Amino acid sequence: MWKHLWKWACRRHPDKNKKWIKNRYFTQSRGKSWDFITERNQIQWYGQSKAPVGSYIKVKEGKSYYDGDTAYWAKRLSKGYGPISPSKAKMLSKQDGKCPVCDRRFKSEDLIEAHHIKAKMDGGSNTTQNLSLLHRYCHDQLHAINVGSVNKQKKRKGC
C-alpha cells in the first residue's frame, strides 16, 4: 500500500522532487515508519504494522454450530466472534443452554431476553445471580401470568 501511495504522489506532482513529496504527504511519527497524511482532509494511513493483531481460536474438533452445545458456542461468541456479551454467555453456560420456563435449548435464531428472578422493584439486582435467560415468548408469558395474579390481588384488596 505504501508503494501505491508513493507512486500516486509522484504522479500527482511530476515536477516536484522526492524530498518535497515526502514532506508534503508523509510524516515520520514514532521514529520508524512514514505515515501518509493530507493537510486538507486530515486523512491518515498508518499501515499494517500499527493494526492490532488478534489471534483466531480454532473451533474444537467435532463441534458444529448446530450440535446443541449452546454453552460452548455462547462462550466462543462472547470472545469477539459474535454479538453476544460475556455476561449472557456466562448465564447460558450456567443454564446449560436451556430456557428454564420451557426447558428447550436456545437456538441461534431465538430471541433471548434476560429475566429478573427477583424483580428490581422488590430489591432485585442486575447481577448474573438474579438474572436468567428466557425465550422472548416464554418471558412474555411469564409476565402475563404475573400481571394477571397482581391484578387479582388488587381487586381483592379493593384497589
Report on the architecture of this protein.
With 159 residues, the chain is α+β, with helices and mostly antiparallel strands. The chain folds into two domains: 2-48, no CATH class; 70-157, His-Me finger endonuclease fold (3-Layer(aba) Sandwich), CATH 3.40.1800. The chain has five helices and five strands, in the order ααβββααββα. The strands form two sheets. It has a three-stranded antiparallel sheet. Strands 4-5 form a two-stranded antiparallel sheet.
What's the SSE blueprint?
Elements: H1 2-12, H2 18-25, E1 26-27, E2 35-37, E3 44-45, H3 70-81, H4 86-94, E4 112-116, E5 131-135, H5 136-157
Antiparallel strand pairs: 1-2, 2-3, 4-5
Helix pairs in contact: 3-4
Key terms:
single chain; alpha+beta; His-Me finger endonuclease fold; 5 strands; 11% strand
Task: Give a quick rundown of the structure.
With 159 residues, the chain is α+β, with helices and mostly antiparallel strands. It contains 5 helices and 5 strands.
